[in-house]
Amino acid sequence: MGTTHEKQLTSNPEPGTTQEGWKRKRFAMDEEEETTNVLHQLIDALEKNGKLLSSQLEAQNTNFQLDREQQKDHVNSLIVVLNKLADAMERIVDKL
C-alpha cells in the first residue's frame, strides 16, 4: 500500500504548485504584455507629438521668414518714398 500512496503524491503535487504557478506565470505574462503595450502606445504618442512639433516649428520658421521679407519690402518702399520727398523738398528749396 505504501507504493500506491507514493503514486498519489506524485500524481497530485502540492496544492498551489501547478495551477497557481501557471496562474501566476500567466498573470505575470499578461501584466508584462500590458506594460509593453502601454509603452508602445507611449512611444507612438511621443513620436506623433514630435512630428507635430517639428511641422509646427517648420511652419513658424516659414512664417517668420515671410514676415522678415515683407518688412524688408516695406522698409525699401518707405526709403523710396522718403527719397522722393527729399528730392521734392530740394527742388522747392532751389526755387526759393
Describe the structure.
The protein has helices spanning 2-11, 19-95. The chain starts with a helix and ends with a helix. With 96 residues, the protein is mainly alpha-helical. It is rod-shaped and about 115 Å long. Residues 9-20 have a biased composition (Polar residues). Residues 1-25 are annotated as: Disordered.
Fold topology:
Blueprint: H1 2-11, H2 19-95
Strand content: under 5%
Oligomer: single chain
Write down the overall mean pLDDT.
84
User: Structural class of the secondary elements?
Assistant: mainly alpha
Total strand segments:
0
The H/E string reads HH
What brief labels describe this structure?
96 residues; mainly alpha; 2 helices
Please outline what is shown here:
The protein has 96 residues and is an all-alpha fold. Helices cover 91% and strands 0% of the residues.
